[in-house]
Amino acid sequence: MQRRQFLIQTAKASAMALGVTGAGIWLAGRKATESDRVFAIPDYSIPQDRLTRNFVVVRGTNPAAMVTAGMTELGGIGKFISPGDRVLVKPNVGFDRPSFMGATTSPEVTGAVVRAVLAAGAARVVVSDNPINSPAASFGRSGIGTAVAQAGGEVRYLSENDFRETHIGGVALGQFTTAAALLGGVDKVIGLPTLKDHNLSGMSFAMKNWYGLLGLGRNRFHQDIQNVIADLAFMIKPTLVIGDATRILTKNGPTGGSPSDVKPGGTLIFSTDAVAVDAFGREMLKRSADICRYIQLAADRGIGTSDYNSLGYMEVHV
Amino acid sequence: MRTIRAIYQLFFLGLFLLLLYWASYDRLAGYPVRLFLDTDPLVAVGTVLSTGTLYRALWYAIPLLVLTIFLGRFYCGWICPLGALQDFAALLRRSRLKKNIHDNDYRPIYRLKYLILTTFLVMAAFGMLQIGLLDPLVLLTRAMTTSVLPSIDRGESWLFLTSREFDLGWIAGLLLISVLIAAVYRPRLWCKLLCPLGALLGVFSRWSIFHVRRSLDNCDDCRICAANCPAGAEPDKNLRKSECMLLLNCLETCPSGSISFGVMNDQAPLPVAGPNLTRRRIAGAALAGLAVPLVFRSRPSIVDTPRPQLIRPPGSLAEPDFLARCIKCEECMQICPTNVLQPSMTEAGIEGFWTPVLKNTIGYCEVNCVLCGEVCPTGAIDKITLDQKQGRGEFKGKPIVLGTAFFDRGRCLPWAMNRPCVVCQEVCPTSPKAIITDEVVVYEGDKRIELKRPRIEPDLCIGCGICEHECPVVDRRAVYVTSVGETRSEKNRMILDTPVSTGGKS
User: Fold this and answer.
1) Which residues of B fall within a CB distance of 8 Å from A254?
2) Nearest CB to B163: which of A160, A225, A252?
3) Does the beta carbon of A145 lie under 8 angstroms from any beta carbon of chain B?
4) Please, are residues A210 and A259 in contact by the beta-carbon 8 Å criterion?
5) pLDDT score for A32
6) Does one domain contain both B229 and B326?
7) CA angle at residue B360 from B359 to B365, to 5 degrees?
8) Which domain holds residue B475?
9) What span, in angstroms and rounded, lies between the C-alpha atoms of B59 and B41?
10) Strand A262-271 relative to strand A314-317: parallel, antiparallel, unpaired?
11) Are residues A104 and A12 in the same domain?
12) A36 — pLDDT class (breaks 50, 70, 90)
């Protein structure tokens, strides 16, 4: 064998041996679990001392005018949205139902909010939810898809890749899958729930609305629904909540299914405190505090207050 | 010529895949997604024999048959997407003249496809439609829908928002792969040996006026044309018209320019018109086609002995009529927004293998959706309206019922373990809800527990299965749907319908 040939062959063999050994060491050191990839939801809230007051109830019939009035009385939309913000608007688009069934947030209100946020200088407004029924069908039939597109926002359907294990740290929910890809990509979050009856918790409104950001396995929540809803309010610290009670699904909730279950409400509720919005909604829906226990549970844990008068309650008619 | 044909093949394969891609709830815009199946002459002829009618757009197949009568099997060479895929697979071949002549030579066994066609058509005439097992367009639609597209998409969400999964998809996928592997060793083996659509077009092309002609004046019998004829049509001898797929490779490769395409002339050897069959063989195949449906008559009738898991899509015909129409193309499964439609394995018996059934653990029937009936090319699932499905307007009080839900009280959390739940009631889409909860107080020792316990109101339940799908007892659900009460059967009933009944049953 030539010396030159021998050296080349030895070099190749050594490189191969090193490669195999190195790969072995690297693979043996890898962790089987990926617990370090747990997502933490950012805090989207704004300092409350900037606001004129933190609880405004607007009565009227014109959604655009009602949204403008509500924002003005809180101190102006500029307090919430800074130019260039990426904003998530989270209406309730839980079901494949037409708007008049009252199971989903009003498309007119959703469109008005998207317009207002864009007018305040937001770079982009994303509207999303994780419906029980097909996303395309739910956004389509509820009218919200069209309303958002016309207002210049973008609808985002969630796919399974958007969800990730997330630290929640609540009483009933320690860790769960949330729409991390969505929540991690925005600066501000506006909750846009619709007021409706709920078969088990009595009412679905501001706190329950965050349910739409959770992933697979959420059908186990009903076993401890009151604590879970309180945990949802703990989980998300929103920039603002606008409660849509322009019409109210009074029974057969949360799906509805008959226009006779729906009553006109003519009301929008503005506050950064989802607990306070729910406290007000509970009175509108005429549910006892014993049924909607989650409001008190959340208030007791200091997540918010059920005494909306303490937030500077104000009512305007437009 | 070969380049032009490859462009046509790529175009039609692309169109086929594009239409399949568009056949999705998220991308609906009135595209003619059934086009390839509507124009499939075998589907048309098969369902005409099994039902005596030509459903909806299946008459689109007639122009194609008429063209075949004049031109021959141009469809196989220029349009068929499965043929195109085989041609592309054959690019992996090492091409040598002698080997090609050997692999492409005609073999008597290629008459098998005509015997298969005969058997299938006679079976169809006796109400047993199985052409879809081997029809190339059905086979490809099925393989793409239940295997290829879901596998490509899995975990990536390129094609569908949520991953699609199909119990028996792998069988359809492996069948497609086998066809393509075979095409590498024997080009177009599927088409020559098994394809019943090719056989049907072959029978019709016996009258064709135009065909490939070999002029004997210049031909030096080099057999290069035979080496380049994957159809095994023997252009170097007396052309077998029913085998020729109009690939026209012979035209382009003939060194002496002896081959042309046109009407019969005196210079060319007389073509062989019909398939290589004797009356004896045809009679044998026809008898087999008669025997199979007869043998199956000894089984318990699904009509008289309903099967609990045989839950058909909304608008489905009564079971015998359904089986006389369903070709198992799985177009309904492609468009179903919830993935609930699955190929059946045993639910509908062996003759119903691959027909659509609802598996509510995977999805549920969306009340606001009638797309499966919209895309069904043969009317096994009738085209229904939303009013008809939901029991509104002129159908008031008579919604389409797929089955009835039942509670397994030994597994239901409020019933068996005193835990609150009733997710089922929350998602129930009927109005008023078909799941009713009764409020009860139970004691575990001194501990007082208030509970809502669910039960089914059978007059209201439409069997959509969303309760079963959303039930948190995920392995064996505590609420489940069986077929009893389904609209399409008059015998699969349990509730006495009284004239004053306010319920939803007809």
Assistant:
1) 426
2) A160
3) no
4) no
5) 59
6) no
7) 100
8) 319-482
9) 9
10) unpaired
11) no
12) low
* Count of domains for chain B: 2
B313 located within any domain? no
Residue B75's Cβ-side half-sphere holds a number of Cα atoms within 13 Å equal to 28
Cα separation of B451 and B442, whole Å?
8
- Written as one letter, the residue type at A278 is D
Length reported for chain B: 506
pLDDT at B167: 86
Contact between B26 and A222 using a beta-carbon 8 Å cutoff: no
**What does the pLDDT look like over A77-121, one tens digit per residue?**
999 999 999 999 999 999 999 999 999 999 999 999 999 999 999
Subunit contact B337:A198, Cβ cutoff 8 A:
no
Q: Shortest Cα distance from B478 to chain A (angstroms)?
A: 13
| Domain ranges, residue A190 | 36-317
Give residue B505's pLDDT: 43
At residue A215, the pLDDT reads 86
Other C-beta atoms lying within 10 Å of the C-beta of residue B441: 8
Same-domain pairing of B66 and B160: yes
Q: Does A103 touch chain B (CB under 8 A)?
A: no
Q: Is A79 on the interface with B (CB under 8 A)?
A: no
| Side chain identity at residue B229, one-letter code | C
**pLDDT recorded at residue B70:** 92
Q: Does residue B250 contact residue B225 with C-beta atoms inside 8 Å? A: yes
Same domain, A25 and A142: no
Contacts of A149 (CB under 8 A, 6+ apart): A155
Task: Provide the 8-state DSSP code for B317.
Answer: P
Residues of chain A with Cβ-Cβ distance to B460 below 8 Å are: none
Q: Which residues pair with A88 in a beta bridge?
A: A126, A189
Decide if B308 is inside a domain: no
Q: CB-based contact (8 Å) between B163 and chain A?
A: yes
Same domain, A224 and A275: yes
Cis-peptide, bond into residue B293, ω within 30° of zero: no
**B391 Cβ contact partners less than 8 Å away, ≥ 6 residues apart:** B397, B398, B399, B400, B504
What is the number of CB-based contacts under 8 A between chain A and chain B? 85
**Residues from chain B contacting residue A204 (CB–CB below 8 Å):** none
Can you list the residues of chain B whose pLDDT is less than 50? 501, 503-506
> Would the CB atoms of B432 and A258 count as touching at under 8 Å?
yes
With beta carbons less than 8 A apart as the criterion, state whether B225 and B254 touch: yes
Q: Any CB–CB contact under 8 A between A157 and chain B?
A: yes
Within-domain flag for B496: no
Do B63 and B201 fall into the same domain? yes
CA distance B136 to B138: 5
* pLDDT of A219: 83
A161 interfacial to chain B (CB closer than 8 Å): yes
Within B129-255, strands assigned E span 210-214
Q: Least CA distance to A253: which residue of chain B?
A: B426
Asked if B420 and A157 come within 8 Å (Cβ–Cβ), the reply is no
Q: How many distinct structural domains can be found in chain A?
A: 2
Phi-psi region of B339 (alpha: psi -120 to 50; beta: other; left: phi over 0): left
Final residue of a structural domain among B263, B289, B304: B263
Residues 443-482 of B with CB under 8 A from A: 452, 466, 470-472
Query: Hey, is the C-beta of B337 within 8 angstroms of any chain A C-beta?
Result: yes
- Specify the pLDDT at position A234: 94
Cβ of residue A188 closer than 8 Å to a chain B Cβ: no
A204 touches chain B (CB under 8 A): no
Q: Which of B25, B421, B428 has the CB atom closest to A136's CB atom?
A: B25
- Full DSSP string of B238-252: S-BTTT-----HHHH
What is the model's pLDDT at position A52? 87
The Cα B290–Cα B297 span in angstroms is 12
Computed over every residue of chain A, the mean pLDDT equals: 91
Which one of B215, B231, B263 terminates a domain?
B263
How confident is the model at residue A34, as a pLDDT? 55
Cβ–Cβ gap B419/A223 under 8 Å: yes
A21 and A139 housed in the same domain: no
The pLDDT of residue B57 is: 87
